[in-house]
Amino acid sequence: MTASAQTDHILRVADLNERRPTLFELQPDLAQLRQIADELGLISLKKLRFKGTLSVQGKREWVLSATLGATVQQECVVTLAPVTTRIDTPISRRFVPETQIRGETQDSDGIEMHADDTLEPLGHSFDLWTIMIEALALALPDYPRADDAALNQVAFADKGIAPMTDDDVKPFAGLAALKEKMQKDDGNS
What we know:
Helices cover 22% and strands 34% of the residues. By secondary structure, the chain is α+β, with helices and mostly antiparallel strands.
């Protein structure tokens, strides 16, 4: 099956061929990579590539199937040292008329939620740049950590006071000792 290549990042639905997939590939230049890195709070972003197809499924549904590849550098959550991560992830979005999305389930706050997180409302165009940035933001590690990063326990207290440890603040840490003391008290009576 042949497909036409698209270089523009905004694709109008009316301009797309419904009979064959539309190929796309986005590779931001150095200035754009810096801008995206700043926008997402990254130390650096290298080799960002978003490549895939956009095709019709059924009568009124469009499917985006792509791969997102990037090399990102973030601060370690423990040491703030640079952590480099390679991201290679498949991206899938289904664009359907908004009436098919509305009226689905609602969460406890009354916000509409849909069981299928790939569903998006079908508009008049597809902004591939926005989809790429969103997919990258979702693929980033939430808590990047350097290989040698360790959380050491540090305890501080005034003179004459025993410092609290993590075990001291656990809600059930003292129950075993209390149970043992109560059993001794019952045995002594």
